[in-house]
Amino acid sequence: MGAHKRSGIRHLTPALSTPGGGGGEWIWRSAADAVVALVALTIVAGGFVAGLHAGLTYNTFPLMDGHLVPAGYAQLRPFVLNWFENVAAVQFNHRLLAMTTIVAVLLLWTAARRRADLSDGVRRALHALLAVTALQMVLGIATLLLVVPVPLAAAHQAGALLLLTAAIALRHALHHPLRHAPLPDGQMDGANRAAL
Ligand code: HEM
Fold this sequence. Notes:
Number of domains: 1
Strand order of the largest sheet: 1-2
Strand content: under 5%
Helix content: 55-70%
Structural class: mainly alpha
Bound molecules: protoporphyrin IX containing FE
Radius of gyration: 21 Å
Distance between the termini: 8 Å
Shape: elongated
Largest sheet: 2 strands, antiparallel
Order of helices and strands: EHHHHHEH
């Protein structure tokens, strides 16, 4: 039993430190949860774009027929029908969710750069997530501008899977978000006690 004991301490910055020692980590986990949810929603929205062949129209970016929000976004009644059956609204929603996803990933990545105490695993997961998100955006925009050539559309579909995987990998890495160093007096923090 003793041989399996590991001891360590978390180097907490003031921003992470709250009474109880777990403070701040939940913010990172919640942010990663939000990114996973955003990617999943964007994928569902992409399915509607493909299903309605909505990528064959409005083949410009960022404007749609000269507008940021396309005219006719809300033409169907009841309003909620637009999200499933209106080509303009379905494509706009997919773009909006994709842009929100990349902004969220960028914010998380930038916040992580300011933190010296995050583990290498979290850092690697964030770099991978940013790279895959950027690639997926480029693939999506290229698919749209070139009016959905099948190889690009297939690559965009595969990219969605890769992106969801990268987001889940980040969430997984956040189980142990901080660097650990040995404690001189054999004390254990909560995470190490749980690992016994
Ligand atoms: C977070 C970023 C994105 C994700 C996760 C994503 C995901 C998806 C998915 C899963 C599909 C359905 C593929 C299929 O069923 O064949 C799709 C379709 C599509 N996406 Fe995206 N997408 C993203 C960004 C974008 C962006 C920025 C654009 C362009 C502005 C775009 C344009 C399209 C188009 C045109 C289609 C239809 C392709 C077809 O008809 O096969 N996507 N997307």
